[in-house]
Every structure is written in C-alpha cells, then in structure tokens.
Design goal:
It is built from 15 helices and 20 strands. By secondary structure, it is α+β, with helices and mostly antiparallel strands. The strands form 4 sheets. Strands 7, 11, 12, 15, 16, 17, 18, 19 and 20 form a 9-stranded mixed sheet that branches. Strand 17 and strand 18 form a beta hairpin. The protein is elongated and about 90 Å long. The two termini are 13 Å apart.
C-alpha cells in the first residue's frame, strides 16, 4: 500500500496528528463520561417544548458540510436517530475551537447548544460548546461502499451496524421477539431456568457434538446440542411448566438456515400433549409477532406470511404423498421405499435407512412448499429425532409429534414426551446400535436421564422453537447469518 507508513495509512496518521494536537492543548481525548440531557429522537419529538432551550446531545459524528469559515453543519447519530448540529467556528471559545479542529467523521462528540430550526426547517442544535469523547482512527464506512461484501458485513458487524440502520433494526426486532416470548410464557406460569451448556453426554437431539475437556473434572465434556433432557429433569422434580432460551452447538454443516451456534427456546408442560402444545405454539408466535412488529402478517420476499391462528394441520404421510407422490405407508420395507423415492427424483445414499429417506423426502419436496405456517403431524417412530417422543395409542409405527414450518423452513419441533422408562431404554439401545453401525448423529445412551425418568414423569408436552429462524421470518431475512450478530465464519487466510 503506497500510502502506508510505519504500519499506518495516510488517513490514520492524519487522525493521530489531530489527536495529538488536541492532547497537546491540554484536553482529554477520552473522558470518562458526558452529561447528555436529550437523545436525538427526543429533540425531534419534543421540538415545540424544547425550541429555544439548551440541550446536550452526544453520539457519533457524521459527515461535515462546511459552507464558510463561520458556518458548518454536521449530524450526530445516537441509538435513536440523528440530529443536525449548526456550528459557528469563529464564535467558539478557544477550548471548543480546539475540539472542532480535531474532529473527523466517525468521532464521538458531545454538543451543547440551543434547539432551533434551520433555514430549511431542519430541527437542529445550534452549538455553543463541544466536548471530545472518543477518536475514530479509521474512516467510518460509507453507506454502500465497502459493505456490499457479505463477508465484511459478517466479520465486521460493527461496521454493518454503524452504516446500515436496517441491520440495527433487525437486531432490535430480535430482542423484542425474545422479550415477547418470555412475557407470553411468564404470564402463563412457566418458569425460566438455566441448564448446563457443558454436558457429560450430549443428548436430546440428532447431531454431532463439539467435544472439549475438563481438567478439573478429568473428563471429556460436550457443548450441548439441545436443552431437552435437563428440562425434563425439572418436570420430574415437580416444576410443572418450565422453559429455557439458550444457545445450542452442533458440529455440522452451515447453510442459509443452519449455524453451528444457534438459539433455541424449549418448553415443557406437565399434563399436556402435542395437541395442547400445537395450540400454544401458534398462539405464542402470533402474540410475539404482534408484540415485536405490530402485526401477525409479515412480508417474506415477494409473499406474505400470516401467523394468525389457526395454522394449517396436515399428517406427515399426507404431506409427503401430496408433494412427492410417495405414500410411504405403501412401501413398508427399506428397498421398496428407496425405489419409490428414486422414482420420485430423490437421490439416495446406500447407507440411508428408512427414516433418513423419509426425512430427505420431506426436505426436498414438502418443506419448500410450506410458506404459510403449517403443522405436520404424526411422524413414523423411525423418523430421525423421534427417539424421545411418545407412541400413538394403538399405532406403534407412529409417535405423537409435530414439526412447524413457515417460509419454507422448519421453525419448531414438538412431542408428547415419552415418559415410560422401559420404552425409553429400548429407544436408547436402538440408538446405540445405530451409532455402532456408523450413524455419528445417533443419540448416546444416557443412564442418568433414565434414572430420573424411572422416578416418574407426568404426561408432558414439549416444544423446541428455533429463535433465529423465527427472527428470519419476522424480519424478512433469508439467511440465518443475517439474524445472528456475530456468526461463525471460516478463519481468514493470513497468507497473501
């Protein structure tokens, strides 16, 4: 880089020089606080009452508009918006003039002055005093320049937040969604708890776990892949309505809807089944939409998604038959199902079992078609992820389970929870055999959980909701990385 000197480019050196001149003049470049009286939005909203009064605002400085030696305009941006500053450098006292001459776009500044309207009718603060709050040693990003590169937006999210109000709004909405869900559950008697992230056995889901080591315990540990098994222990212990919103970690592929680190809501309600949980799910998400974005109908690309209950309900068998042409009940053995799937256009791998083929039929043919919120119900017992679900009375081939879809993606999974320890033991043993046969995502045998279940667990309905995916849908974002503040990325190459 021809403009780089001593590891600093020309712009950085110029900004450092201004910083040094400010400090040489005896001023603090990084004070500990500033007595801000108003935020930008408040000045705009309360202009009639504030007109002609003194206020102090603070924030990041935008681009200067210098019209003459004694007239300049600038904008200060805080977390509510921006307010225009009108500056008359010749009229400043020496202390304020030194600050003015040290400022660059991107710096943080405090400004005190009189609330007025400019000649063009812009609500403004006519500045009498400036306080330097923090120096930006690099140029701030322009709104479009340098931030169209997706990699830059994810790796330097602070620049994305700084330049694009739309990005900030996504994460403000995310916070409101989670707050609304918490309020919904708290007002219905659910108790929020925290369960271990480090676990000796990574259970409750179908996924490969991240492994680590505890030196203090002299044991291998795993980052949790699900919240389920510890929350069920709470049900066993007598907390009849329980939930947790927390991070899960799965050592698997990345896609527009998958991240190795993601946020889940899981809840469990004693004396409820999957039908009760279905009604709770649609009501909770619709209520969260109203609380977070003000409506239940939201844009999704060139379509609209309406979360207003009741959502469509369809048995899984019926859905796969409708969209792929394969009625899996007519193909009871693996070879015939594989042949039917192949004829439908699905490529299958030799190691896939019956449940895996059904899962792939769902993913390829059904899921993309479910734009409006839809519950698919009554899954086969051998379908992936059904290990912890209770069987349907009189039909051992199916479990009381549903998955919820919207926008063409899965957003929730729920069961009538299996509470017969004898059956659960058999299911775990089947998973052990699957793991020994090469299925790295099969669930391990968890004797501690079985011991808890052997103490008795009441009939229980359970639910898992992908918070990131709900945020995607409610903010019209089509990649999970756009709703995770700091998504996981491959390490940057350090070679030229």
């Amino acid at each position: 880089m021809p403009d780089e000197v001593d590891g600093l480019d020309r712009i950085q050196k110029a900004r450092l020089a201004k910083l040094e001149r400010l400090e040489d003049a005896g001023q603090r470049a990084y004070p500990t606080t500033f007595a801000r009286t108003h935020k930008a939005q408040q000045v705009h909203a309360e202009f009639d009452a504030l007109n002609g009064t003194q206020v102090c605002v603070a924030g990041r400085l935008g681009v200067f508009k210098i019209l003459s030696k004694n007239l300049a305009f600038a904008f200060v941006q805080d977390d509510t918006g921006q307010i225009q500053l009108i500056l008359h450098p010749r009229d400043f006292e020496e202390r304020t003039r030194v600050v003015y001459e040290a400022l660059d776009p991107g710096d943080f500044v405090g400004a005190c002055g009189t609330v007025i309207k400019s000649n063009r009718g812009e609500v403004s603060v006519e500045v009498g005093e400036l306080t330097f709050l923090s120096k930006s040693l690099r140029n701030p990003p322009e709104k479009w320049h340098g931030l169209q590169d997706v990699e830059t937006r994810y790796r330097q999210r602070y620049l994305d937040l700084m330049a694009n109000p739309e990005t900030r709004q996504v994460f403000l909405t995310r916070s409101r969604i989670i707050t609304a869900i918490r309020h919904y559950l708290n007002t219905r008697g659910f108790v929020e708890v925290e369960t271990p992230i480090l676990q000796p056995i990574p259970g409750g889901g179908t996924a490969r776990a991240f492994a680590t080591e505890s030196y203090a315990l002299d044991a291998q540990m795993y980052l949790r892949i699900a919240l389920e098994l510890y929350l069920k222990r709470c049900i066993v212990g007598g907390i009849e309505r329980v939930y947790e919103i927390g991070r899960n970690f799965r050592n698997e592929g990345v896609s527009f809807k998958h991240s190795p680190e993601f946020t889940m809501l899981e809840l469990y309600q004693a004396y409820a089944d999957y039908q009760d949980v279905m009604r709770l799910t649609e009501d909770m998400i619709a209520t969260a939409a109203k609380g977070a974005v003000g409506r239940t109908r939201v844009p999704w690309g060139d379509q609209q998604i309406d979360f207003n209950p009741p959502w469509q309900r369809m048995p899984l068998r019926e859905a796969i038959a409708e969209f792929s042409g394969v009625d899996y009940a007519q193909y009871p053995d693996l070879s015939s199902l594989r042949s039917a799937a192949h004829n439908a256009g699905l490529h299958t791998e030799p190691e896939w079992n019956r449940g895996k083929i059904l899962d792939e039929l769902l993913t390829a043919f059904v899921e993309p078609k479910l734009i409006q919120p839809t519950f698919l119900t009554d899954y086969p017992t051998d379908f992936p992820g059904s290990t912890l679900a209770k069987g349907k009375p009189g039909n051992p081939a199916e479990v009381e389970r549903f998955e919820a879809f919207a926008g063409g993606i899965e957003v929730a999974n729920a069961f009538s929870e299996l509470n017969d320890a004898r059956v659960q033991r058999q299911r775990f043993e089947e998973q052990v055999r699957a793991r020994e046969a090469g299925d790295v995502e099969a669930q391990p045998f968890d004797q501690d959980f079985l011991t808890a279940l052997e103490h008795g667990m009441p009939p229980t309905g359970g639910l898992g909701v992908g918070i990131d995916r709900i945020v995607m849908l409610m903010t019209d974002q089509h990649s999970i990385r756009d709703v995770i503040l700091f998504p996981q990325l491959r390490p940057q190459s350090t070679t030229g």
